[in-house]
Design goal:
This protein is α+β, with helices and mostly antiparallel strands and about 130 residues long. The protein is built from three helices and five strands; from the N terminus they run βββαββαα. About 30% of the residues lie in helices and about 25% in strands. The strands form two sheets. The protein has a three-stranded antiparallel sheet with strand order 1-2-3, with no helix packed on it. The protein has a two-stranded antiparallel ribbon with strand order 4-5.
Length: about 130
Amino acid sequence: MDVQVTYQDGVKFQASCRGHQIFSDQPLDNHGQDEGMTPPEWFLSSLGACVGFYAVKYLEIRHLDAKGLAISVTADKAESPVRIDNIRIQITTPTALETRHQKGLERAADACIIHNTLTHPPMMTTEILSVAIA
């Protein structure tokens, strides 16, 4: 996986991957132009979309209706260090599910790659590459 993020202007960034682009910005009250989601909003969106993918696959394999499936992801902002905390995922299905399918859907959602990354933190490194000024 390889995503390139480039600075645009103000506090706006463009992320590119496989020919797709999305923009990140800040709200007006945080020096932005509100032309895109903030990085934490992207983060929660990524989790929701990943959970949604696994949920749809679970439902489809069992011939259960996935049309109208909705995922809500909410979180709190924590301090020391600043981070996202208390992430809550709600999956709303278009029809009522038996208890066994509710539990199965929850297991499927919890198996998504983003969920697994959060519950098994990855190794991370930061490397600074400076371009020499002529």
